[in-house]
Design goal:
191 residues; Pnp Oxidase, Chain A; 5 helices; 10 strands; 29% helix
Length: 191
Amino acid sequence: MQDPFEKFAEWYCRAGESEDLADAVALATADSRGYPSVRMVLLKGHGPDGFVFYTNMESRKGREIIDNPRAALCFHWKSLTRQVRIEGPLEQVSDEEADAYFDSRARDSRIGAWASKQSRPMEGRFEFEAAIAKYAAKYAVGHIPRPPYWTGFRLRPEAIEFWEERKFRLHDRSKYRREGTGDWTLEKLYP
């Protein structure tokens, strides 16, 4: 049985050759009442320790993650007619990991992280542009620190499903499951 992380890495690499945004992934979360929400985020790391993305903790997704630290990811690579679904608990990345990724971002993106009150209502675009100007002036020279409310999360998969289109809707589906830190089990699913 192929390791699901190796299989993902192969598919992800192949998607990077044919997709404009191979790292774009739908992230589904739910609030404390179980009300679901889904949006696109960018994958910023993957491997046996999990799948990493970053966000503003004060955003809707950040609040949902705090209330209910479980999520699902869905990659859809249209050009390859492939999909990968991943489910599991979330954990916050270390401050060192978040700092390193934040420092790797474009300067304007780091300013934007300070200026945006993500997911909250704003009076108009001018309000946001004024905040951008304020933080651009504040951090005109030198290092831009990571905002205390901006961090990353790692989804530690308990299930990874690979779906590949076949003719006549006779698709190929393989689902890997794991309990805790145990070994993966593999089952084939009807399309």
